[in-house]
Amino acid sequence: MDLLNEAGFEIGPWKNYKGNRPAANPKYCYNWSFEQPGEAVAVCLWHRSLKQGKGGVSFRRKPRGFAALRKGPGANVWNRRDADFGKNLELAYRQQLPIRVIVVDGEQRNPADLKPKASIVKARLLDPVGWAVTEYDYATGECLLERGKTPVLPAVDSSDLELAWFEGEKSKRAFIYHRRREAKARREKIQEALRANGGKLICEVQNCGFDFAERYGTLGEGYAQVHHLLPLSKSPKNGRETKLKDLAIVCANCHVMIHAGGKCRALDGLIAASKGRE
Ligand SMILES: [Zn+2]
Ligand SMILES: [Zn+2]
After folding, report:
1. Residues 254, 142 within the same domain
2. What pTM does this model have?
3. CB-CB neighbours of 225 under 10 Å
4. Do 233 and 206 share a structural domain?
5. Residue 245 or 181, more confident
6. How far is the CA of 188 from the centre of ligand 2 (A)?
7. What is the pLDDT of residues 31-69, one digit of tens each?
8. C-alpha of residue 222 to centroid of ligand 1, in Å
9. From the CA of 263, which ligand is nearest?
10. Are 133 and 145 within 8 A, CB to CB?
11. Same domain as 163, residue 105
12. Would you state the pLDDT for residue 67?
C-alpha cells in the first residue's frame, strides 16, 4: 500500500479499511494490479519472472487459466486476479498509460500443486524506472512489458472502428485473427508513409489532409490511423498477405465517417472539394 502511495496512486478507499491494519484490507492487498484511472497502472511482478535480454528487462504475460490447472475454492479468486491483471494491461496499452512495477521476491506458490502453499513474499520494491506495455495481442491477451520504455501511441491500432463494421461473433473473431497477422503490414504502412511524406503522416482522404503532428504538436507525432481499403469478406479464406497498397493512412474523423453506420465507404468523395481545407 505504501509503495502504491509512493507511486502516486490514490489509496484512500484501501486505507479506510475498518480493521486494525489498513494495509491488510483483503479487498486490495492480494491484488496483482492496480489502476489509477486515466493516469497509470501498477502491477506486481515476481522477480524471477522478469527476463534480462539485449533490449533490457522485460516481462511477457500469458493468460494462465488457473481453473484448468487447479480445481478448488482458490481457483476462482486466482482467475479473477489474473483477468483483472490482463484487463489493466490492456487498458494501459489502449490508453498509453505508464506502468509502475512492484517487484516481488520470495517463494511463489505453484498453482499446479494439489495442495499449494501460500506464496511467501520476502520483499517488495517499487521500481523507480517506469515501464510500458509495448505489445498487446487483443485476441489472446498475451503482452509484453518493457522496463524504461514510454507508452507508444498504438498508431496502427484503430481496431474498434474496423471491428464495429463486422456483424456476428464469428466474423468478428475472424477479423481479430486477421488483424493479428496484419499488424506488421500496418506498422510498415506507417513507416512507408513517413518516408514518402518527409516524416509526416497525412490523412489520405481527398480534401482532408489532416496531420496530427501539425495540429497537436509533439503529442500527435507519429500518430495516424490505418484503414483497410478492402473488405475482409472479399479476401480468400486461407488469408492473403496484406499489401501496403490495401491500407490507407487516415485521420480519426475521416475514419469514423468511412465506417459510420457500419459501412466501409470509399475515400474518394468522402469530403466534397468545396468542403476541403485548402
Ligand atoms: Zn477502416
Ligand atoms: Zn481525414
Report:
1. no
2. 0.59
3. 27
4. yes
5. 245
6. 20
7. 888 888 878 899 999 999 999 988 899 999 987 655 455
8. 18
9. 1
10. yes
11. no
12. 47
pLDDT, tens digit, 9 for 90 and up, residues 105-136: 988 776 666 666 677 888 889 999 999 998 88
Closest to 98 (Cα-Cα) out of 57, 136, 150, 44 = 150
Ligand 1 centroid to residue 257 C-alpha, Å: 9
Domain that holds residue 131: 2-147
For the chain, the average pLDDT equals: 81
7 lies in the same domain as 143: yes
Residue 156: pLDDT band with limits 50, 70, 90: low
Between strands 131-136 and 56-61, the pairing is unpaired
The CA 232 to ligand 2 mean position distance, Å, reads 22
**Same domain membership, residue 163 and residue 143:** no
Distance CA 142, CA 144 (A): 7
Average pLDDT over residues 249-277: 88
Letter for the amino acid at 102?
A: I
Q: Which residue, 81, 115, 147, sits at the end of a domain?
A: 147
- What is the CA(19)–ligand 1 centre distance, in A? 52
Looking at 147, 180, 201, the residue that finishes a domain is: 147
103 with 185, same domain? no
In 3D space, the residue among 43, 31, 38 whose CA is nearest the CA of residue 7 turns out to be 43
Ligand nearest to the CA of 248: 1
Query: 52 and 124: one domain?
Result: yes
Same domain, 138 and 195: no
User: What is the DSSP pairing of strand 40-46 with strand 99-107?
Assistant: parallel
